[in-house]
Amino acid sequence: MGKGASEPIPFAGSQLGATRHVCAFFRNADEEYRVLLPFIQDGFESGDRAFHIVDPKLRNEHLRRLASAGIDVAVVERNGQLRLHDWNDTYFRHGHFDQHAMLALIEAELQEGAGQGFRLSRAIGHVAWALEDRPDVQDVVEFEARLNYILPRYKDPIICVYDLARFGAAILVDMLRTHPMVIIGGILQENPFFVPPDEFLRDLSERRGATGR
User: Is residue 3 part of a domain?
Assistant: First the structure.
């Protein structure tokens, strides 16, 4: 099935090594898919599994973009290589955002992919749901930090997609601090601003205490 799970993965003008929790900042959808489609296509060609979470309103657009890259969507869905979900059956499947339930879901998906014999699950999650007026979406920052307790136990890449045009500076800074790898300007790089989860969560708790939240 191609490259071994521990080998570097070509991605965004660089190589994704052992650390695979990535914050991907894009200015628009065209830039996003220009960077992500080669990574997605390489995954299918390597026999990897894809686990994508998208805006329910953009599900068909996502499939169209995959098809435009020459990916036979019907085949990869039928053979189990593509698991496409939207926000409502993942982040909001309980009617609100439950960060601990979502952490468990992600880990279950990674384990399921391995149990099905896939070398890797390449996960891509669009995070614009955090801008919606729904209960507990403010926990997204804590959720991203806590992912760093889980993901080092796996070799699967997790790409968290953020639209620079829609998110405010404060939350983007926190997102930067919760991801050890980052894509900025279409290039993957090690993130010098990453803060280990213990330290970040302690800082977040102090900030919330100071503001009464």
Answer: no
Q: pLDDT, tens digit, for every residue of 158-203?
A: 999 999 999 989 899 999 999 999 999 999 999 999 999 999 999 9
Q: What is the DSSP letter of 95?
A: S
Instruction: Write the DSSP assignment of 103-168 as a string of letters.
Output: HHHHHHHHHHHHHTT-S-EEEEEE-GGGGSS-TTGGGHHHHHHHHHHHGGG----EEEEEETTTS-
Look at residue 44 and tell me whether its pLDDT is greater than 50: yes
Torsion of CA 3, 176, 167, 31, to 10 degrees: -40
Closest CA to 191 of 204, 175, 205: 175
Average pLDDT of the chain, as a whole number: 93
Contacts of 132 (CB under 8 A, 6+ apart): none
Structurally, how many domains does the chain consist of?
Answer: 1
Its pTM stands at 0.93
Residue 23 lies inside a defined structural domain of this protein:
yes
Cβ–Cβ < 8 Å for 21, 159 = no
Q: What is the CATH number of the domain that holds 207?
A: 3.40.50.300
Q: Is residue 142 part of a domain?
A: yes
Answer yes or no: is pLDDT of 2 > 50.
no
Radius of gyration of the chain (CA): 17
Tell me how far apart the alpha carbons of residues 176 and 155 are, in angstroms, rounded to a whole number.
21
